[in-house]
Amino acid sequence: MSKQxxxxxxxxxxxxxxxxxxxxxxxxxxxxQKQKLxxxxxxxxxxxxxxxxxxxxxxxxxxxxxxxxxxGKLDKACEQQMxxxxxxxxxxxxxKQMWLKQQQKVKAVTLLLDKKKLAEQKKEAxxxxxxxxxxATQRFFRAKRSPF
Length: 148
Prior knowledge:
Layout: H1 2-57, H2 61-145
Helix pairs in contact: 1-2
């Protein structure tokens, strides 16, 4: 029984490590998506500054309208990236919950295994004590019988 519990504990620990890796990967994905959003937003700001500088020198309405249209596309791209981040964050949260649940399983199996080992140790100690008591009793009777 103890060997089975040890194998189960090892299996659950491996599963917990795997879930931890999956959570870490999901969290890295969230961070990468946030970096993409930051880059997009920075590009948008730089682009608008460029339009403003060019606009001071004087541009046609068509030219200005084209650039504003592109800024609108950048805004839409930022919104889409925020949605990607939200989905990635939800996936990371789910992975975290799976990891935490697996940690609880590992703790439960480990606790059960520890209790089982403690019970076996107590049983062995009791058997050893009984054997020592028997040995002491026999020695006592032998000493009593023997005149030397």
